[in-house]
Amino acid sequence: MAPDHDNDKNREIEKEILQGQKSSLAAAIAREGGSFFKGESIVPKLVQATIEINLFIDAHVCDSSGALKAALLNLVEMEKTQVSRHMGSPLTALQEMLEAIIGNQQLLYDLVRQVDIKWGQIYGERPHFQQPGHAPHLDDEYTHESVRKQLLDLLDKVIAARRQN
After folding, report:
1. What is the pLDDT of residues 3-56, one digit of tens each?
2. Which of 76, 90, 116, 139 could form a disulfide with 127 if both were Cys (CB 3.0 to 4.6 A apart)?
3. DSSP 3-state helix, strand, coil percentages of the chain (rounded to 5)?
4. Do the Cβ atoms of 157 and 107 come closer than 8 Å?
5. pTM
6. Are 159 and 94 in contact (CB under 8 A)?
7. 118: burial class by Cβ within 10 Å (0-12, 13-18, 19+)?
8. What single DSSP character describes residue 137?
């Protein structure tokens, strides 16, 4: 039997089966089955890129209380537009975010404030907010300089990982 003849016969059988059924979008999707996603993941690319960044942060940020990690993960969630511009290379988006924060004192101070707030939520205590131009409190785990150093370390790791790929 020729392949064209087999295809015609299959279409006739399918047509007979469908004649007695109601037509609906759900039925059409069910008939097509997996062919909608043939070769593609069912997880949207933006979600995949965000997960890749989040896993990188989780694996490469040393943060005993978890407040810095939480603030960085929140930042990634808030910067969906930037992540979407680099879905083929999510670490590029993370690199740009880190460079922007490190290169702008006000963004750094804002991030440190968010980290301090998160720390306070985790421990149920009032955080120590370092004021720009002032020395940090002795018990302040997250100072402007300590967070900046951790961001620089993370940036170095991002750059190294991007070079390997």
Report:
1. 667 777 777 777 766 676 666 666 666 666 655 555 667 888 999 999 999 999
2. 116
3. 70, 0, 30
4. no
5. 0.74
6. no
7. buried
8. P
